[in-house]
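lol forgot to send this yesterday, sorry. struct tokens for the thing we talked abt
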């Protein structure tokens, strides 16, 4: 069976900004696909980093953070948008800003799209070990730092509806990653 190369038959022919926000913009893409034109609303946003800090006792350092979209506190990992070209520098900055640590052993686990059917954002996920106390820049009253085992974090996320799909996916990756180490 011959494999069809659909990418040669796809072209974004127009992008029109529909909304400009502080964190993201919304564009209407006009796309030609196989001689047909379709429209899609796409959220354009800076790429981001997510960091999985593990302390000397093997516990994850997570955040319980207020999220307006769900009007609840959600369990998540430190992270944020890219502010420079170096993904490692961004990961270190987010660690310091959100939990007051830097990592002497930062390892990229995976880079992936956040949700490519609706956004252009790429996420770079790091494992951070050998943590060292650093100046905490952002003492946010809506963020609480939580330490727990991978098993406890998985249990909480599975049972308490207190997290997002990115955190749940990272925990699944970690569960398998730790079996390999």
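and heres what i got for the seq, position by position
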């Amino acid at each position: 069976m011959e494999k069809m190369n659909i990418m040669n038959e796809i072209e974004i022919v127009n992008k029109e900004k529909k909304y400009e926000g502080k964190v993201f913009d919304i564009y209407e893409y006009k796309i030609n696909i196989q001689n047909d034109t379709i429209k899609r609303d796409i959220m354009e946003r800076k790429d981001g980093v997510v960091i999985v800090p593990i302390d000397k006792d093997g516990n994850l350092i997570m955040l319980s953070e207020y999220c307006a979209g769900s009007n609840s506190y959600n369990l998540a990992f430190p992270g944020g948008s890219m502010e420079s070209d170096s993904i490692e520098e961004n990961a270190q900055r987010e660690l310091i800003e959100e939990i007051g640590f830097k990592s002497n052993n930062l390892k990229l686990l995976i880079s992936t799209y956040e949700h490519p059917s609706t956004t252009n954002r790429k996420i770079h996920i790091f494992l951070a070990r050998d943590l060292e106390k650093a100046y905490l820049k952002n003492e946010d009253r809506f963020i609480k730092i939580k330490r727990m085992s991978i098993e406890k974090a998985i249990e909480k996320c599975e049972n308490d509806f207190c997290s997002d799909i990115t955190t749940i996916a990272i925990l699944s990756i970690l569960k398998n990653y730790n079996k390999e180490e």
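The mean pLDDT is 88. anyway ping me if u want another try
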